[in-house]
From TrEMBL:
UniProt: Zn(2+) 2 binding residues: K151, H191, H247
Name listed for the protein in its UniProt record: Allantoinase
Source species: Staphylococcus simiae CCM 7213 = CCUG 51256
Recorded GO CC terms: cytoplasm
EC number, UniProt record: 3.5.2.5
Gene: allB
One Gene Ontology biological process: allantoin catabolic process
Keyword 4Fe-4S found: no
Domain Amidohydrolase-related: 51-438
Cofactor(s) needed for function: Zn(2+)
């Protein structure tokens, strides 16, 4: 047999465990896995000493392209997908906000596809939005356009002075939207925080002269995450809509989801790398670059979240890569700063170090939380695992190889990240998309733009 590529000598994470095997690739697909492959190959990569994982499928990424004249300096497709490649992410699911217009119907998703055309270093799947203003055909148009899932906000979001910006749902639009989405068979993913209480507590703290991130965390208490999760589960039972809760930041929220699963509700959840790494007591030393919502909670809660990732109660981990321009983070008042963390480049290395190396996570579970589980949940059938017939998407990891992240390492349009200055104990050595190298420590990120909207 002749292959385009053979990967030799790596510790390869297969669905039934990590093994020292060779992997053969033909026409962008995995075509052979064996102890030793003997056929001819145009290219052979020696992965001696490296872990070969399925490329990350990051199910929560914000690319702000088009910016619509309002957010033009935010993350674009070119830089965002380069950073993905550098971080071992071979595909991601893109959120339907903060681009202008938000992705809420046929016209806006086509505008988005145009903005990304020829600019993708990795593959991109799309979310469509559920907003109060797209219940008159928008949901169906997005289904026809091939979105993999829908996204709604219960927390307040969007700028009402920008026409076409995203908006959080009221209870009626949530209910009606879930009925419509149920008919598509797709999943609704929701940012679950109580808008009314968190807005008001934030307002009061701000008026009282509070400025710290610690006070910001206190203005979004745990029960304001739990209450909307309960409501969403009730709505899911009523409408039959499949449900996913994005970036759960507390165990109490996870507990509600586990209970609902036991009752037979089709509901899953994710958390983000930053909720497994940072903690409240250090946030003010880091500054507004680490502000996000739901907020990062106390150090005492960190290991409980890791336990839930290990035991599968939390289905997978995402970056919620949500960058803005530096001016929006340049304030001493945490309440005034934009909330969002740039993180797509530091999922694989941080999760490998913190999960596998520091907390004895199995390699199988590692591949599951970064790739297999999100690909399955969102129906990305060609992605997420190293198996015959799947896309040849890989990330090669150098274990026990620490480095300190510098701003200039970041491929983002704006080189901001709370991980800057942190020592990370593993490194992404190489990323391969459908059989072609898109990043290596040797060659950097490729200028070829072979990524596709999927
Ligand atoms: Zn997000």
């Amino acid at each position: 047999m002749t292959f385009d590529l053979i990967i030799k000598n790596g510790l390869v994470i297969l669905e039934d465990g990590a093994k020292h095997v060779d992997v053969g690739v033909t026409d962008g697909k995995i075509t052979a896995i064996a102890e030793t492959l003997t056929g001819d190959a145009d290219k052979v990569i020696d992965a001696q000493g490296q872990v070969v994982s399925p490329g990350m499928v990051d199910a929560h990424v914000h690319i702000t392209d088009p910016g619509g004249g309002y957010r033009d300096g935010w993350e674009g497709y070119d830089t965002g997908t380069r950073a993905a490649a550098k971080g071992g992410v071979t595909s991601f699911v893109e959120m339907p906000l903060n681009q202008v217009p938000a992705t809420t119907d046929k016209a806006s998703i086509e505008e988005k596809f145009d903005a990304g055309k020829g600019d993708l270093t990795v593959d991109v799947a799309s979310y469509g939005g559920l907003v109060p203003y797209n219940l008159d055909g928008g949901i169906q148009e997005l289904d026809d356009a091939g979105v993999v899932a829908y996204k709604a906000f219960l927390a307040t979001c969007g700028d009402r002075s920008i026409e076409g910006d995203f908006e959080n749902v009221d209870d009626y639009s949530l209910y009606e939207g879930m009925k419509q989405i149920a008919k598509t068979g797709k999943i609704l993913s929701v940012h679950a925080e109580n808008a009314n209480i968190t807005d008001k507590l934030g307002e009061i703290a701000y008026k009282n002269g509070e400025t710290t991130l610690s006070a910001y965390v206190d203005s979004r208490p745990v029960f304001t995450e739990v209450e909307p999760i309960r409501k969403l589960i009730l709505f899911a039972k009523e409408t039959g809509c499949r449900l996913h809760i994005v970036h759960v930041a507390c165990e109490e929220g996870v507990e509600e989801i586990v209970k609902a699963q036991q009752e037979g509700v089709d509901v899953t959840c994710e958390t983000c790398t930053h909720y497994l790494y940072f903690y409240k007591e250090e946030l003010d030393d880091i500054g507004p670059v680490v502000k996000c919502s739901p907020p990062i909670r106390e150090q005492s809660r960190l290991e409980g979240m890791w336990d839930r990732v290990q035991n599968g109660d939390i289905d997978f981990v995402t970056s919620d890569h949500s960058p803005c321009t530096p001016d929006l983070k340049d304030t001493d008042n945490a309440f005034e700063a934009w909330g969002g963390i740039a993180g797509i480049q530091n999922n694989v290395d941080v999760l490998y170090d913190e999960g596998v190396q520091k907390r004895d996570m199995s390699l199988e579970r590692f591949a599951d939380i970064i790739a297999t589980a999100p690909a399955k949940r969102f129906g990305l059938d060609s992605k997420g695992s190293i198996a015959i017939g799947k896309d040849a998407d890989f990330v090669f990891i150098n274990p026990n190889s620490s480095y300190t992240l510098k701003a200039e390492d970041l491929a983002y349009r704006n080189q901001m990240s709370p991980y800057i200055g942190r020592e990370i104990g593993a490194q992404v050595a190489r990323t391969i998309l459908r059989g072609k190298e898109v990043y290596s420590q040797e060659n950097g990120v490729t200028d070829a733009k072979d990524g596709q909207f999927i």
